[in-house]
Amino acid sequence: MPAFLEERFPLGIAFGATGGPQWRTEVVALASGAETRNARWAGSRRRYDAGTGVRSLADLQAVAAFFERMHGRLYGFRFRDPFDNTSAATGDTVTPLDCFLATADGVASSFALAKTYGGGDFTRKRPIAKPVAGSVRVALDGVELVETTDFTCDPATGIVTLVAGPPAAGVEVTAGFRFDVPVRFDTDRLELGLTHVEAGRVPTIPLVEVDPDAEA
User: 26, 37 in Cβ contact below 8 A?
Assistant: First the structure.
């Protein structure tokens, strides 16, 4: 069985989760009082606590059932980040011009989805490996293409493939999409109880982002 299952954590619970991106930075204090900082990771990694999304006994049961199917930490799965799940700005509609993917070289006909944060010298390009099927929109030099007719997108990898082959060199490839985050449970044991619902207590359900391409 693969290490990643294309199942989605219950949406209703996910939208009440807390968490976000994490970086690992090494900070070294110098004798002069100054400091140096070095990034230990090439990209950020997201962590969440889905326990804050539990509101009822039905939610607890849904999480427990999902936890069983994932065998605790064994299998990865899709998670809808309540704060960042689309290429568009908050409240805006996804468009095929949202994110720059690449400038065509006349050879490549497949392009990986990515979301861009910031601009200029501080642009952060985040790979998107788990787009929502049917949500991807693609354009070449601003002209939108038609899915299945002009392009396909593998929702398990985030790779867009142009049906007609490589576009001419210099053509800008852009895309817009909705997406999930590949995660796994960060525990092999869940501490659940009816008191969580009756007394308004919040269980801890830790999730951590994984790299599906690195899954063995």
Answer: yes
